[in-house]
Amino acid sequence: MKSQAPMRQRSDQHSASPASAGSGRAYSSESSSIDPLFHLLRILPFSFLRPPRIRLKIPSTISLPSPMTVFSLVLLTYFAVVSGFVYDVIVEPPGIGSVQDPVTRAVKPVVFLPGRVNGQYIIEGLSSGFMFVLGGLGLIFMDLALDRSRAHSVRVSLASFGIAAVVISYVMAMLFIRIKIPGYLW
Amino acid sequence: MGATSNASPAPLNSALSSFPSLKALKFTTKQQELLIRVSALALIYVLAFVVRLFSVLRYESMIHEFDPYFNYRTTLFLTKNGFSEFWNWFDSESWYPLGRIIGGTLYPGLMVTAALIHRILHFFSFAVHIREVCVLTAPFFASNTTLVAYFFGKEIWDSGAGLVAAALIAICPGYISRSVAGSYDNEGVAIFALLLTFYLFVKAVNTGSLAWSLASAFGYFYMVSAWGGYVFIINLVPLYVLVLLVTGRYSMRLYVAYNCMYVVGMLLAMQIRFVGFQHVQSGEHMAAMGVFFLLQVFYFLDWVKYILNDIKLFHSFLRITLTCAITVGVLALSIGTASGYISPWTGRFYSLLDPTYAKDHIPIIASVSEHQPTAWSSFMFDFHILLFLFPAGLYFCFKRLSDATIFVVMYGLTSMYFAGVMVRLILVAAPAMCLVSSIAVSATVKNLSSLVRAKSKSPQGSGKPLSGSKAAAKASADQSLPFQKNGAIALLLGALYLLCRYAIHCTWVTSEAYSSPSIVLAARGHGGGRVIFDDYREAYYWLRQNTPPDAKVMSWWDYGYQITAMGNRTVIVDNNTWNNTHIATVGRAMSSYEHEAYEIMLSLDVNYVLVVFGGVTGYSSDDINKFLWMVRIGGGVFPVIKEPDYLVNGEFRVDKGAAPKMLNCLMYKLCYYRFGEMTTEYGKPPGYDRVRGVEIGNKDIKLEYLEEAFTTSNWIVRIYKVKPPKNRW
Question: Residue A25 pLDDT more than 50?
Answer without folding.
Answer: no
